[in-house]
Amino acid sequence: MVKDFPHVGLLITCLVDTMRPEIGFATLKLLEQAGCRVSVPDAQTCCGQPALNSGARAEAQALAKRVIAAFEPFDYVVAPSGSCLGTVKAHYPELLADDPVWHRRAAQVAAKSYEILSFLADVRGWQPQGVRFPARATYHHTCAGLRELGIYAQPLQLLEHVDGLEILPLEGETACCGFGGTFAVKYPEISTAIVSDKTRQIAATGADTLLAADLGCLMNIAGKLSREGRGDIRVFHPVEILAGMADGKGVAGR
Amino acid sequence: MSTALRSPANFRREAAEAVTKPSLKIALDRTTGLLQRRRTDVLKAYPEFEVTREIAKNIKDHTLAHLDHYLVEFERNATAAGAIVHWAETPEEACRIVIDLCRQADAKSVTRVKSMLGEEIGLPKALAAAGIDRVETDLAEHIIQLADEPPSHIVIPAMHKTREEVAELFANHHKEPKIDGEVGTLVESARQELRAKYVAADVGISGANFLIASTGSVCTVTNEGNAELTTELPRMHIVTAGIEKLVPEPEHALVLLRLLARSALGTEFTQYTSFFTGPRREGETAGPEAMHIVLVDNGRTQMLAGEMRPMLRCIRCGACINHCPVYGAIGGHPYGSTYPGPMGSVLTPALESLEVAKDLPHACTLNGRCAEVCPVKIPLPDLIRSLRDDTWRRKLVPKPARWAVQGWAWMAMRPRLYRLAAGLANQALRLWAGPRSMIAKLPLASGWTDSRDLPAPIGPTFMEQYRRRQRR
Question: I want to staple A144 with a disulfide (CB 3.0 to 4.6 A). Which of A83, B99, B233, B410 is the partner?
Answer without folding.
Answer: A83
